[in-house]
Amino acid sequence: MQPIFQRLQKFINEFTSSRLKKSIDLFELKSEYWDDKTLHTHIREEIYKASCELVELHEKYPTLHVITNYPDLKNILWDSTFIESISPDERKKYHNSESTSLSHDRLKDDPEIYDGQLPYFSGIISSIYLTGYIAFLQSKLPEEKTTNILTEGKSTFEAQLNTAQIKLLSECLNDVRMFPENITSQTLENIFACNLSQPLKARNNRLLAYFFSALDDRSPITRNWQSVIDKNRLFLSSGKSKPLKQSDLSTANSEIKFTPPIGSATIAVIGIGAKYDLKNIPVGLFVNPYFNIHNLIPFSMENYHERTSEEGFRFGVVYYLH
Fold first, then answer.
1. Which of the residue ranges 50-59, 81-90, 195-204 would you say has the lowest mean pLDDT?
2. Is pLDDT at 15 greater than 90 in this prediction?
3. Listed residue (86, 39, 87, 96) closest to 64, CA to CA
4. In this structure, what DSSP letter does residue 98 have?
5. CA torsion angle for 158, 159, 163, 168 (degrees, to 10)?
6. Structural element, H or E, at residue 319
7. What is the pLDDT of residue 282?
8. Using CA atoms, how far apart are residues 317 and 278, in angstroms rounded to an integer?
9. Residue 11, phi then psi, degrees to nearest 5
10. Per-residue pLDDT for 296 more than 50?
11. What pTM value is reported for the model?
């Protein structure tokens, strides 16, 4: 089956490369006649427009998240988890596509012409193109000057989490395999303190954004967490292994509002509490507010996810053995 996907991938790469080159050439032509302010405004508008198209596409076809999670793979159909994410009937159509004749001209005239024979084909092409175009536009924005960062002082998460909560959160991150290797509580403390010796590579940008967004919703970290990650270069992108920028996180954060990533049900249990130790006796009392979100198993083919939530307080008594 691999040769079939390699043939399709070759066609996709050629078509998207040609389309991307045309967009880049048009951009370069415009940039010759605009001043920097006008150019940068145009770039941000184009990034916003392309990001909205990508989000809309993923809302319609959640399977396409697999494509944008691995933007650097040249053989993404085979090397990613795309094959595993489609249904047996859809997989069979790809298996039987060996005799399908592909034409660049026909695809230009009708972008969805092959979708009946090859499910998500137009979406795959659009996802690869939009991801590449957004990356190109982001590379043309001016970098923040180091002097500005120094004068502003170090930016942190302003985390309000105790040792027990950080331990619980680190276990949660390991459960959902947030990073290629398990992390310790100390590593998570270093993340919140922005004191990592080197950035950690995320396995899924959307899941990482979901984690920090969930913390933001419950207020134990600053609402500017995207900027903090960007300025401190804490994480590397799951696809390109480049430092995650605020624009990357903003795009990921927008996408998760429509389609929560795999692992979000584990992450969406956030509670911040308080503990009081009684004097002279080895007993303490605690109260812990909590908020849980549960994804419901979808029994229909709708593209949205139904969820239920619960919130309340946990009360308890702690007895110290030492």
1. 81-90
2. yes
3. 86
4. G
5. -160
6. strand 307-319
7. 57
8. 11
9. -65, -45
10. no
11. 0.48
